[in-house]
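Reopening this one. Same input as before:
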Amino acid sequence: MKKILIFALVSCSFLVSDLSRAAQFRNESSVQNKVSDVNKDQIVDKTKGTANKSPNTIKYNTFMKAGYAAYNKKDYKTALTNFKSALSLRPNNVYAVKAIQNTQKRLAGK
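Same output, byte for byte:
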């Protein structure tokens, strides 16, 4: 009888131990899933942000990138044309104004 009682107690202790480990694993998995859900939301938000850009913003960015590419190739006339086109879309834009000033200095040989 004592052997059966001891066996039952030992079996219960293993069962309780296994259950507590399972609960701990479940809690850790739940936290990881919540983090994954947050990351998925951030990824979705980033892709939505690019889809919502206005046509003028897309054109401005295209002209600025083309201007910087031409500037880096030392094609200052093309760069100046692109920066001026960008400025026409965003009058008084500090980045376009500064890019134009820098390009004009290069064209003047300074």
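So the earlier flakiness isn't reproducible anymore. For the record, Residues 80 and 100 are 6 Å apart (CA to CA).
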